[in-house]
Amino acid sequence: MFFIMVFGYVFAVGQSSEKSLTINSDEQYASLKEKPFSKDAYFFDLDIPYLSGRYGKIPSDLEIDAVPAKITLPDEKGNMSEYYILESSVLSLEMARKFPDFKTYTISGIKNKSSHGRIFLSRFGLEGMIIIDNKQVKLEPIDNNNPIKHKAYTLEAREDIICNQLSEDKVIRETGKRFAPLGMTNGGSRRTYEIALVATGEFYQNANLGNNSLVTANAAIVSIINLVNIRYNVEMAIHFTIFSSPTIYTDPATDPFDPSGSNLTSQSTSAVQSNYPGGGYDLGHVLNGMSSGGSGIAGISVICGSFKSRGWSGGSGINTIALSIMIHELGHMLGAGHTFNGIGNNCSSGNLSVNSSVEIGSGTTIMSYAGSCQTDNNIQNNDDPYFHSVSIQSFLSYLSSTGGTCATNSSTGNTPPAVNANPCLGTFVIPKLTPFSIQGSATDPNLSDVLTYIWEETDEDGPGYPTQGYIGTTAGNSAIAPLFRSYPPSVSGLKRTFPAMNTILNNANQSNFEPLPNVARSINLRLIARDNNSLNGGIGSDDVVINVNGTAGPLSVTSPNTAANWSPGSQTVTWSVNNTNTLFASVDILLSLDGGNSFPITLLANTPNDGSETFVLGNYPATTNARIKVRYAPNSCFEIFDISDTNFTITSSCSVASSNICPSLPLTATYGDAALNLGLSPVYGNAISSRAMTTGGSVINVAYNLTPASPGSGNCTTGNFGYVSDSFKFRITVSGNYTFSMNSANPLSIFNGAYNFISPCSNYLGSTAYDADGNPSGSAYFTSQMTLNLSNICSDYTAVLYRQSGTNVNLSISGPVGGTIFESSVTPPVGSSYTYVAVESINNLISAVSNNSDFTTLPGGSYCVYGVSYQSALNPSTWKGLSIANLQSSGNCILSSTNCKPLNVNCTSIVTSTANSGAGTVRASFECVADGSTITYGAGVNSILTQSLIINKNITLQGSTLNTIDLNFSGLYGIKIAAGKTLTLKDIKINLIGTASPVILNKDVDFGKCRNKRKCQSCH
Fold this sequence. Notes:
It is a single chain. By secondary structure, this protein is mainly beta. Helix 6 (about 215-235) crosses helix 8 (about 320-335). It is built from 13 helices and 69 strands.
């Protein structure tokens, strides 16, 4: 046995160990982590001649009602997914004739409908990118000259890039306006632009670009334009095609360019105009090769105008030029300025926009400078692959004027989403330094579209740069600075909490990039929905204003704010009012059992906002992770609140398990649709944002990254370091990036599914531990944090901690906005049962109970379906008409799920079927429509009922001319009308074929145009 001393830590390593495992501090790791792009890869072989033949003549995206082909492609883990594929050319006719094997395609996910991308097939292999839950998966050949072996890998890091936008002053004078009207929509029309391209000698000679071959250089250019189109197709329904053929210079010494010069846009204009003297193109651009990194410059709002060739993009490879530089520079040419408001390094005032600096710090979106400002202003190292709504606003403004005059427009048949940022018709006034949540709504008539949503702040600080570099408290003390960072769109993004909930639960309300306002001001928020149509993406948006009262707040819970211990009986909650009672006279007090991740229990509703309430604590489940929320919620769309600072304990005899609904994605279906039989099963476990772990047990092998030499996702290897372990299973509700942080550096690995002790690499995802040099016999390191992209919702992941026995670690997990992490390794207690309830959104009352989540007979309306754990002695059938809060406050030992599944049940009030029951029948309409509705018969439709019909609503039955209802059965009655309800018949004839008697039971019938009221069976 020998010892190794590294960074002040001593490790005993067994003699059988293959290598030493070394701790690496976050500071030391930070200097090592920057590598071009990324990370773990999946390698696969392709038969390019076969693929070119198979997909050489498939339908084009330009064909009306084109039927797409299908293709199966891997992600970076080797998971195979099927995609629809259509040819979507970026080549001119001239170029297509010159290179007949060059084919570009658009793809869209079949199972995961939000996934999309583009691929390029040629003699050099398959190259392209797929967007999967905001993760960019790049596909490319390993050797263009022998394109059999390919790889799929995630693009996570980028090389250093610089963009110099031209002065906006001229642009403002030229266009006359910058911003589009509020309530933006786009996607009904596709705009196609032809781009004239000139490549420098450096581009031609770069091994990653031209590679000293005109054919290879042309292929690189096609790949760049194809990749650029991914975002512009989906975000803006804009498509770029290559004008004529690219002009490619082969020698840097003789080409007309000086890439080190300060007049690059003048050089680009001159080169494009001289090589394409006849014009005819919509914009021009120069592509340059660089030894490392990337840089670009472009005029703002120049497409279709006299300066339309003022664009330059350079980089060390296809990925850098297309995805880091050109996509950004084209954004300038389409009218968008920079969106960052940070300072330092490349974030100089010369690069700061005068009217679109809406992102705090470096920003995170395509037109930001993510990772390029001074360290404390950088939110993250890389921009996320989407445009800020203010960039989209700028695009639409310019495209509605000069920028739209040269586009070729075509109808898409896509209807953009309709968005409502204020569906509850509320007014929004908040106290200072107080968290709040807001929720909007959106609809899309294209039912196959998968909508994603994002709330963004659109505040710009006005002329000049008065708040540049303001973050944290400094920004919070400003009446004009941007406050809240942007997060990537997600399916759960209709609701956003400011700041993020994990920040609140960690008592850090004044975070650097989501600081709460501390002064009177207005906050302009926008909800934008994307339909993720891979060809012609549609967007819709709506805006609201949040007004901050500078003399009220913060609302702040003061007790229990320590590790208290509650039991059933009298308890007291206190909070600091701080003048908030001038904004709202009453508050609700809620209880969480899972550390503040959910608040399923209402302790007091609508109690005076006076700072203290004493109440009787009911028979709620025992927990050591209780938290209190004091909130003002004037409606279901808006909430102002504070949460107690730390977990406390509740002791109780009530023993039921926490649970969650998965999948919890919203569902809209018609009454009786089989989709309303949800097929849910209980998922027991608490929502967590942190988890205590203590190692113990037997020594096991550590699974960690062989490559790359950094924490995160990677290729797995194992080693015996004499470590023991602790583990737990968890689930996610939203796909995206999840960050795992520990209070000290330790080896922590994540697995897709159960942990396999015998073969841990079989389902390995990533680790904080990594090999130093990719050599299994070398040294290894570990750190305290990593980020992984997780995409499997409703499936278990396993976290495994390795270390010496008795090591105590606190693990924190944070994910995308709207995402929740559930610990799933929980067994329900003996004596408990489980059922599902549909709660009406309008009144929070239970409308239906089902032990197997079958809600096919749920009437039309808006609901949320909860799972409920309850003591088996209770009878859930008695719960209809009550609220969950009523049941809990009455002493019932029940616990609703921490989330719910929204249901919208649509009704048809037109009878189209003659059948006794099912969709379109009169019975289905009676059961589904609201009280007071009119049910109309379609022409020539006559109902045949084989069972009695019970009417428990006030309903009018309207015939189209004269429709009949045949009662063809025996029984005590044909149609029964509930007491106090009236059935009105108009142009309806009821025929008794069977022996049901009486035909109509009860007297409350309005016979309308009845000619013979004594013989109501023939009344009409």
